[in-house]
Amino acid sequence: MTSSSGNYFRYLPPSLEARNWGLCVTASGCTRIPARAGYPLVEHPEDHHLDWERGRVLDSLQIVLILSGSGWIETRATGRLRVKAGMVILLLPKTWHRYKPDAQTGWDESWIEVQGPLVDGLLEAGVFPMDTILRARAIDVGLEEILDSIHQRIRKKPVGFQPELSAAALHVLSLCALIAPMQPQLSRIQHSVNEAERYLNDHHAEPINIEALAKRLGVAYSHFRRAFRAQTGFAPWQYVMHLRLTRARRLLASSDAKLYDVAARVGFSSGFHLSFAFKRAFGQSPDVWRQTLFKS
């Protein structure tokens, strides 16, 4: 947690009680990034670290309000978009992204992270489409004040589930839904790739037929494969493997699950096949990688 100039961030443990309320706040922060400063100013937990070159994928929904300054946000679905003061960025779960302030201006940001069944339902219903994550006039509808109230409560009260935070977070989501999105003009093939990326994120642990998926989206497979690689940087099957291995790393790092159990959960036919793909991708076997991770 930072303390200079009023900056702070805090990550909260998910609560079982939060499921009764539909959502909970799992992180929040506000930071002033001066001009020509590095971004981010401080190190966040490994699963939240943001590096411009590599980008990042989160498991939860983050809402980032830009109070001053300017910068950029980039996703596979939208490409690179200009961010200005007064805009809010919706960082959707399981979606690659990267963002940063301009070196010449820096920016002030205020953000929260939320998760829960209510959030999942809103995303599944298309309330926050993948290609409309940047929304303007956020300050005009009072979003800054609601975020401030969340920050004050988190900074002053002990960590633990607070129904008032869930209510405030729902207010934030409702305001974001009211704000007109900054919609890029996408071609038909871009829409198809976006739909495919969403499908693969949701079903990567299941048997997948890429040609059948392209046909279902109404796109010739050869055209689809080229467009998918151009838009995501991966061939479709490479993207599936990337998702499976990324999830495998998280499971290996956060549990004592056996390799064959992890393999079954992420879509590999056996622990041997997971181990082979893992070593080819990361240069170490899963067991060696896990041992290295927990060395003091």
What do these coordinates show?
- Helix content is 42%, strand content 19%.
- The protein folds into two domains: 4-178, Jelly Rolls (Sandwich), CATH 2.60.120; 188-293, Arc Repressor Mutant, subunit A, CATH 1.10.10.
- The chain has helices at residues 18-21, 117-124, 143-156, 163-178, 188-203, 210-216, 221-232, 236-254, 259-266, 271-282, 286-293, and strands at 8-11, 24-33, 61-75, 79-84, 88-91, 97-101, 107-115, 134-135.
- It is an alpha+beta fold.
- Strands 1, 2, 3, 4, 5, 6, 7 and 8 form an eight-stranded antiparallel sheet that branches.
- The longest helix has 19 residues, at 236-254.
- The protein is globular and about 50 Å long.
- Helix 3 packs antiparallel against helix 4, helix 5 (188-203) packs across helix 7 and helix 8 packs across helix 9.
- It is built from eleven helices and eight strands.
- A hairpin with a 3-residue loop joins strand 3 and strand 4.
Topology:
Blueprint: E1 8-11, H1 18-21, E2 24-33, E3 61-75, E4 79-84, E5 88-91, E6 97-101, E7 107-115, H2 117-124, E8 134-135, H3 143-156, H4 163-178, H5 188-203, H6 210-216, H7 221-232, H8 236-254, H9 259-266, H10 271-282, H11 286-293
Antiparallel strand pairs: 1-2, 2-7, 3-4, 3-5, 3-6, 3-7, 5-8
Helix pairs in contact: 3-4, 5-7, 8-9, 9-10
